[in-house]
Amino acid sequence: MAEKNDSVTERKTETIMIGGGVEYAKVASRCTEFHKDNIKCDIETTCEFKEGFVLFSAKVTTKKGTFTGHSMDKVTGRQKQFEKQETIAVGRALAFAGYLATGEIACAEEMAGMTKESDRMDPEQIMRLTELAVRADIDVEKVCKHHKVQVLADIPAVYYDGLMTTWGLKAEVK
Fold it and tell me: What is the secondary structure of 37-97 as a DSSP string?
């Protein structure tokens, strides 16, 4: 279990500017702050392959508790794909533990990709996602709140495949 370093002084995590003038703290900067703030700490990651997707899970343990983050993507063989997905999962876990600069949980690539209004799901995708949400007993309101949108249809299309896979797996378990 992690122990908080009580001698830590208030400091600002190094940030970069991304789309729309948003300030974002890179995962590497947040990891540095995390290690400075905790005498003992733990970051664990796991990787799972299922039906053409890779799912990374990260677990960050501090004195405050254990925080998890996940990332999922289609396996494409892109250069550094696995490193990026692992970094996204760690970044999300760190954000849930309080190590973030913008109040956003998304990674820099996701934030930059969300600036396009044209990147919306089509009506067919929305219908399939809604049906699957019902079958998998998903709290759609909570998902919308996480994505900072009012309705499921406003979630960017970039999340469609990941939500379908995650919710599909949950529906199979039910």
Answer: HEEE-EEEEEEEEETTEEEEEEEEEETTEEEEEEEEEE----TTHHHHHHHHHHHHHHHHT
22 - beta bridge partners?
A: 18
Tens digit of each residue's pLDDT (9 = 90 or more) over 23-62: 777 888 888 888 888 888 889 999 998 888 888 999 999 8
Query: What residue spans define the domains of the chain?
Result: 3-113, 123-173
Q: How far apart are CA 26 and CA 108, in angstroms?
A: 7
Q: Report d(CA 86, CA 54) in Å as an integer.
A: 10
113, burial (CB in 10 Å: exposed 0-12, middle 13-18, buried 19+): middle
Question: pTM for the complete prediction?
Answer: 0.53
- Residue pair 83/173 in contact (Cβ under 8 Å)? The answer is no
Q: What is the CATH number of domain 3-113?
A: 3.30.160
Residues 6+ apart with CB under 8 A from 68: 57, 58, 59, 60, 92, 93, 96
Report the alpha-carbon distance of residue 51 to residue 165 in Å, rounded.
Answer: 9
* Share in percent of the chain as helix, strand, coil (round to 5): 45, 25, 30
